[in-house]
Amino acid sequence: MNNRKVIQEALEVLPGGVNSPVRAFKAVGGEPIALVKGRGCKVWDADGNEYIDFLASWGPLILGHAHPKVVKAVSEEVRKGLSFGLTNPHEVRLAHLVVEMVPTVEKVRFVSSGTEATMSAVRLARGYTGRKLVVKFDGCYHGHYDSLLVSAGSGVATFGIPGTPGIPEEIAKLTLVVPYNDEGAVKEVFDKYGEDIACVIVEPVAGNMGVVPPKKGFLKFLRDITREKGALLIFDEVITGFRLSKGGAQELYGVEPDITCLGKVLGGGMPVGAYGGSREIMSKVAPEGPIYQAGTLSGNPVAMVAGVETLKELRDKEPYEELDSKMRTLEEGVSGLLKEKGIPHRINRVGSMMTVFFTESEVVDFESAKSSDTELFGRFFRSLLNNGVLIPPSQFEAWFVSTAHEEEHIQEALERIEKALGEL
Length: 424
Ligand SMILES: *Cc1c(COP(=O)(O)O)cnc(C)c1O
Description:
This protein is α/β, with parallel strands linked by helices and 424 residues long. The chain folds into 2 domains: 168 residues, Aspartate Aminotransferase, domain 1 (Alpha-Beta Complex), CATH 3.90.1150.10; 250 residues, Type I PLP-dependent aspartate aminotransferase-like (Major domain) (Aspartate Aminotransferase, domain 2, 3-Layer(aba) Sandwich). The chain contains 14 helices and 17 strands. Strand 10, helix 7 and strand 11 form a beta-alpha-beta unit. The mean pLDDT is 97.
């Protein structure tokens, strides 16, 4: 089946032809593609076209596609059976790795997606504090859980409005939405509702409005105000965990959340999420404590070994400087090419994640991210795709490099991008 046929048949039986909306390319226009193979830093579509891949399956593939150690461990495990539904040794191995690597996690519970991780973390925070309200930041994405799929109303700090039909207003109202990097707005909601706020959840480096780094002191401020007001601080490190450093953003910025959500890299390409924190907080999770959360396939052995091999490789090789330097080369290269063409842009980058915004203004929150010329981004995306470079099909996402991107691949990508810009 070629791309067109896959997509046509998909449209008959999947809503919008996809299982996750952004795959339909609505934000960039043009025909979606179907991918059939990945090796290292490259992927191939159903027509046989090759792409240098900066999508990296939206972040998990920090070791590139089909890393030999991961593939070997998974293949061996598959032969022993796919799921047991009782404890298996690989969950314990992965849990020990997480506890060893992530500074504030002493105990961890595995789930099967990032959404489940944030949903369970919020339940834990509410159960632990006995409070209802959740503070989130406009433009941060924490999966599609009702309480977190909420957007900002008008005003600086507002009660959330449902991010989609199907979420009752009553639920959205329990979420307060404030602009990212805005300490004043956070202070305001705590002044007004402090006694009722269970938690603040934040992407310590935002990745889902495009990459937006925290302003200096912002995370520390969140730590201090939550501690002072008796709320919990949740870091959603589903993207940043094991990507920005061995211990994620909390290690990089030296700020300690109460609960950490993990996903993406944690599963090395398999569906794995997790939430964890101190022994004291995690002791409230069933069956140790009263706060219920469960999963038939949680801790699935095949998924767990993919995570184990991925984390072991990261722990032992610590490729973070190398990843940072490769992404810097790409950043400088792309910026140079755009300058030559006279295209106004801003690039936000933290380590191996970055976003190119087509705007003149600094991007520090969702409002400024939205100043990017998304029509130009759409053309940019399609032109790159036609020239064998795959980036996320939306302005408000992060590009990723993996350890499989060698300098030569970055150079090759830059040549392809130069050609693409020539055709823009
Ligand atoms: C991807 C993502 C999620 C959701 O993870 P899923 O596995 O897609 O459910 C949550 N939080 C952040 C920060 C993410 O990037």
